[in-house]
C-alpha cells in the first residue's frame, strides 16, 4: 500500500504577532522601570542666565521652600540637623556638591542659616540651582 | 460576460508592524531630553579656613535690602541691569576686586541670585556672601 506524504509543510515563522510581542515587552519595561528620584518640596526655582549644567551623581540637594521647611533626602528636618546629615554624606564622598533648591521668594535668612550649617560640616562646594532665563 | 475575481484577501500584512514599532521606539529614544539641573557654583569658606584681611579698596560691597532695593558702595542705589557694566568697569580698574553680596535676612532669595547672576555675567570670580545684621 502506498501512502503519499504531504509535502505542504510551511517553513516560515509567522511574524505577524512579532509586533504584539515587542509592544508587550516595551510596555512591561515602561511600567516596571522606576527612576530613583527625590521628590523634594514644591518650589519655584529662581531664574539665572549664567547657570552651568550640573552632574547629578555628585549632588546632595537641600530643598527649602517659602514656609521655611527644609528637606534633605525627602526627610523634613530642622536647620540644626543639616550639618550632621551633610557631614555624614561627605564622609562617604568628600567631593560632593551641595545643591540649593530654594524657592525664589524664600527669605534669605533661611539660606543664610543653611550656609552656616554647611560651613560647620565643612561642605565647601555649593551650587544654587536655577532655571534658564526665558527671553 | 466578464467574471469578477473574488480572490481579494481581506487581511492586511502585519509583518511590517514591528518595523513601525521599532521606528517609533528609536524616534522617541532620540528625541527624549532629560531635564538637566543648572546651577550657580560657589565656594564657601570652611570652618578651618582663616579669615583673610582685605584692603578696603579691594572690596566692593553690594547690599540687597528687604524691600528689594540694591545699593552698591560708591554709587548708591543701583538697578539690577546696571550691576553688570558697573562691576565690569570696576574689575577693569582693579582685577583683584572682591565683591561682597550683603543680603538682608528678610530679603527674598531671588534678589541674591539675581545679583550673583549679574556678577557671574560680569566675569567676577571673587564673590563672597554675607548676611546683613538685622535691626
Keywords:
heterodimer; A: 135 residues; alpha/beta; six-stranded mixed beta sheet; 3 helices; 7 strands; B: 135 residues; five-stranded mixed beta sheet
**Total count of helical runs of at least 4 residues of chain A:** 3
Overall, the morphology of chain B is rod-shaped
Rg of chain B computed from alpha carbons, rounded to a whole number of angstroms: 31 Å
Most extensive protein-chain contact, per-chain counts: A-B, 48 and 41 residues
**Percent strand of chain A:** 15-25%
The ordered H/E elements of chain A are: HEEEEEHEHE
> How do the strands line up in the largest sheet of chain A?
1-7-6-3-4-5
User: Helicity range of the residues of chain B?
Assistant: 25-40%
Query: Judging from the principal axes of the Cα atoms, what is the shape of chain A?
Result: elongated
**How much strand of chain B?**
15-25%
Low-confidence stretches of chain B: none
Largest sheet of chain A: 6 strands, mixed
The helix/strand class of chain B is alpha/beta
**Approximately how much helix is present in the residues of chain A?**
25-40%
What spatial order of strands do you see in the largest sheet of chain B?
4-3-2-5-6
Helix run count of chain B:
3
Please describe the biggest sheet of chain B, giving its number of strands, its sense, and whether it closes into a barrel.
5 strands, mixed
Strand elements of chain A, count: 7
